[in-house]
Amino acid sequence: MPQYIVNKAAEDNGDHEVHVETCVNLPREDNRDYIGEFDNCADAVEKARVTYPSANGCAHCAKECHTT
Asked: What pTM was computed for the model?
């Protein structure tokens, strides 16, 4: 099951991107917040939104959950 992290630092548009831990576009280690193992990015984004309401899927590794 994939492990997901969220970028603690917001992008310019305010989004906190959710990534699969193997993504080539991971944030710096000090900006990573591990959110857990999930079957899909939708569940990972939902979990991330508890802490980061503007969480959004990464356009590269979680593109089916990328909305902006």
From this structure: 0.93
